[in-house]
Structures are given as C-alpha cells and as structure tokens.
Fold each of these.
Amino acid sequence: MKIIFYGTRGSIPVADRDFIQVGGNTSCILVIFKSGEIAILDAGTGIRKLGHDLRTKMAKTYGDIFIGLSHTHWDHIQGFPFFKPAYDPDQKLIISLCGRQKHARDLSSIFAAQMQRDYFPVSFDNLQANIVFFEADTEIYRTRSGATITAAEHRHPGGAWTYRIEEQGKVLIYCTDIEHSAGIDMNIVRFSSGADLLIHDAQYTSEELKSKAGWGHSSWDQAVEVADLAGVKRLALFHHDPEHDDTYLFDLEKKYQRHHPHIFLARETLSISL
Ligand SMILES: [Zn+2]
Ligand SMILES: [Zn+2]
C-alpha cells in the first residue's frame, strides 16, 4: 500500500510561512491499495487538496471512497464540506466511526451540524454523493482485494480510535489524539504489534505534556515508547502542535534521530510505500 500525508497538523490549521514545510493542514491521510482502491483516514482540512488530487490525478479509478474517522473533533472533520467528491452524484462515500452506539448523537447528524447555516453557507443536503454512514464495532472494512481495516479504542476526551490496516502482510497503524495517562496504553501497543509503519500523535514535548493533562494528546517520548514496545519498523510523528514551527520541529527530529533512526516527522505531501 501507499500512504500520502495531506494533513499532519494538530488542533487548528496554520498558514504561517514558517510552518509550511511540515504542513499547515489538519489530519488527513490517503491510503492507496495495490488494487487501486483507496481509504482516507480523517477529514481534516487536508482533505480539500486530497479531493482535488483524486479528481485530477486519479480519474475515479478507485471506486467507492472509504473514510475512517479517528473521532469527530473539528480538526478531523472540518475539511469535509470542501471535499469535491462529496458533491459528485456518481460517487459513493462510506464514512465510518467505531463505537458510536456509546454516544448520544449519530454520525450523520454530527456531519450535518457542522454545515448548519450558523456555521456554513451550504447545507449537508446539497452534497450529492451517495453518502453512507457506517457505525461499526471494531471490524470495519474489507476492500475487494482483501485488505482489512480494524480499530481499537483509545483514551481521548470523547473517545477516539486507532486504525490497523493490513494488506498482503504489510501493516499500517494510525493512532492520533491519544492520551496515555499513567503509563503507556498496552492495548494499543498490542494492537500495533509488528507494524511496518506507526503514525502516532506527538503533539507535545515531555515538558509541555506536564501542563496538558486532560487535553488528549501524547509526547514525542511516548510515541517512541509505543513504537519500541510494539516493535514497529518505522514511526511517523503526527498531529504537530500549532505552536511548533518548521525550525523547531526539524531540530527536534534531528535530535531524536540520533538515537532513533527509524523515526521521522509526518509532513504534507510525503508519500511512503509499504
Ligand atoms: Zn486532533
Ligand atoms: Zn481530538
């Protein structure tokens, strides 16, 4: 499978000049399977460019579009009203989130709410695609070619989910907006076991994390610890804090790579093949 980062920023998009190399758009990742089918992880502001690229570079060869959400905080759904395929009557979209039965409101009403007139000029009813909301338990999706997508819940205000995507023996883990609390979440370590690539929340330094209890995020050190415990081959640090500019992040990456050569910053436009 091939993975392309379209949004790697946490919490809020940033457009300042010294943030552009790592990227200013919020969470959005494209996964292209060997069969040509695709999955999208989160619908942050990065999904606008992704939708544009699907139309111009991939010429609809991918079929239905599966969108798996880690959760529905703004920075993970905010780009959806700007996702061109959502306005195409010939396009089927499958939008999935696990564990919705625990929540008061269903997924479709959350998506419709962010397009209410008070917040947005175009209502959800104007989207012409065939949009199916899928509220799964943990076994979520299987592509026609047999790639599988499963999920496990992790700690975050309101709840959030880690995804495990497997295709022909290759494994991708997407784990963002996770707060490990006292000790590392060993359930997520087991779920990530042996992955070829782990994409993990690394919003804060260990120092910053001390004053951010309850904010729902991880430190660089915690991401490294999960990667080590789970024996993953490569670690992409993700959900960068909106206060961390390119210079800050590249310096930190260089420092960490001295001891952990398998880690790198997730940055916009970066693509990785597994
Ligand atoms: Zn987030
Ligand atoms: Zn969140």
Note: Helices lie at 47-57, 74-77, 107-113, 186-191, 206-209, 220-230, 246-257.
Amino acid sequence: MKKLLICMFVAILNIDVAPIYANDAHHQVERSQKSYSAKGEVVSIDNAAGKIKLQHEAVSELKWPGMTMFFNVADKALLDTVKTGDQVEFEFVKVDGSGPSITKIKPIK
Ligand SMILES: [Cu+2]
C-alpha cells in the first residue's frame, strides 16, 4: 500500500511539472495553446523574417474563410522543408499579439 501511495505521489508530481514547463518561453506556444490543422499552397517564403505566405483553405474551427496570408513559423528550419508552389498540410497555434505560428508543415504527396 505504501508503495502504491508513492507511485500516486510521483504521478501527481509529474502532472505538476508540466505547467512549469509551459511557462518556459520556448515551450509556451506548443504546450499551452490549441493547435489547428489546415491545408494550403505555399505562395512565398521569407526566410529572413521566418514567415511563410500560404493560400489556405477554410479553417472551420476558427471560422476563417479560405485566404492568402502570412504565418510565422515556430522554427525557421520548417521553411526548408517546403517550397513555393507546394501543396502542404500544416498545423499552427494562435499567439496573442503576434499572429498565428506554424508548428508543423509538410508537402502533400
Ligand atoms: Cu487566413
């Protein structure tokens, strides 16, 4: 019984660690915000600014119509995985004050 209690205690501790991590600036976006997925086409890529312009389909969860717009990327390395003209599927989070930020993107084959 004592062992079981310790296990439960450890489990609770682990849960408590997550929010602390979420306050870390680098992990805040991924861990504390809902991400949305959509498909679109790469219109242009701005490596220097870490932005990508996508013509995306409607995102019903956000009540967004299809449109062409810039997205930030969580990691500039993501921009090397796609090129202008690619059909892509991507995931993004909404970041207060700085617009949507892509966390995953890949060409549709
Ligand atoms: Cu849009």
Note: Residues 56, 64, 67, 69 surround copper (II) ion (CB under 6 Å).
